[in-house]
Every structure is written in structure tokens, then in C-alpha cells.
């Protein structure tokens, strides 16, 4: 199942723990954040000022 912008951050990190390194590489400290269960990937990119397509590509490449 491909990763999408609509996927909740917490769900993604639990389902595919290898993505945690990508969050950290992009300086996104979503690991353990109480908001991660409410924000989807697009929300997290917006909040952290990360280019969404680059981030999604990096997430997809690590799985």
C-alpha cells in the first residue's frame, strides 16, 4: 500500500517504522508528538515548512 499525504503520521510510523528516520532527517520531530495522531503527512509538511513532494518521495523510497 503506497504512502499518501492523507495518512496519519502516527499510523504511518507505527505501520512502517523505517519511515521514522525520514521524519528525523527532515528535522520533523513527530516521533512521540501528541499531535501525530491527528496530523496527516500533508499537515506535518505544512507545519514544519517541508516541501511535500520531496518528503513523500523520501518516505516512499525508504519502504
UniProtKB/TrEMBL annotation:
Residue span, DUF1858 domain: 3-55
Name of the protein in question: DUF1858 domain-containing protein
Source organism: Bradyrhizobium aeschynomenes
Amino acid at each position: 500500500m503506497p504512502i499518501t499525504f492523507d495518512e496519519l503520521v502516527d499510523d504511518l510510523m507505527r505501520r512502517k517504522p523505517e519511515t521514522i528516520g525520514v521524519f528525523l532527517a527532515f528535522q520533523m520531530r513527530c516521533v512521540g508528538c501528541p499531535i501525530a495522531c491527528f496530523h496527516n503527512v500533508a499537515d506535518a509538511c505544512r507545519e514544519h515548512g517541508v516541501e511535500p513532494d520531496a518528503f513523500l518521495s523520501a518516505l516512499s523510497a525508504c519502504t
